[in-house]
Amino acid sequence: MTVGWAISEGLTGYPEAVAAMEARAAAIAAGQAGELVWLVEHPPLYTRGASAREDDLLDPDRFPVFDTQRGGQFTYHGPGQRVAYAMLDLTTRGRDVKRFVCSLEQWVIDTLGEFNVKGERRKGRVGVWVDRTAKGRTLKEDKIAAIGVRLKRWVSYHGISLNVEPDLSHFGGITPCGVSEPGLGVTSLADLGQLIPMHEVDVALRRAFEANFGETERVDPPV
What we know:
With about 220 residues, this protein is an alpha/beta fold. The chain contains three helices and twelve strands, in the order E-H-E-E-E-E-E-H-E-E-E-E-E-H-E. The strands form two sheets. Strands 1, 2, 6, 7, 8, 9, 10, 11 and 12 form a nine-stranded mixed β-sheet that branches. A three-stranded mixed β-sheet has the order 4-3-5, with no helix packed on it. Helix 2 packs across helix 3 (about 200-215). It starts with a strand and ends in a 5-residue tail after the last strand. About 35% of the residues are buried.
């Protein structure tokens, strides 16, 4: 069975997106709807994951803060960042959460590879990283994509966020994903010199998704 592939234009409100995801995930679990990947951009906001530490919210008045049941800590969403919500049925894909998260990371890594950017995994740090350490210099690694998912009745929702061309200063109001070690930061395709239009990123995301998860078909977004 093909996976629905939906893209919303403009900015999608976060509460509306969560409500739509939860409804779709419940319908998938009940056998009343098919799997769906939904691509959106959000207005500037912070989300608080299930394992977030409150002292990682450095500027609580900067943008709206939303509680979320996904895994992970604080993260930022905003214009220029492509968020891909993946509502997939793991009962038909093997009930292996670790392998599923690894597949999500590979989806991002393969997407970045189409733009000659080498995305990498790091042990103990979920997400996708870019090594920017100059030869002979101290460690410098930047996160280019965050991953946070939740499973309910073995159906996933939430997903990945890839920094295409967001305002990176907006990450300054939080400790992104709780990572504060020296030499670790955030980056984007634009920050790496890759000025890629969002629609081209979407094409690469779809191609990489199909390579890792299976065929897709274009459908209307849930909201």
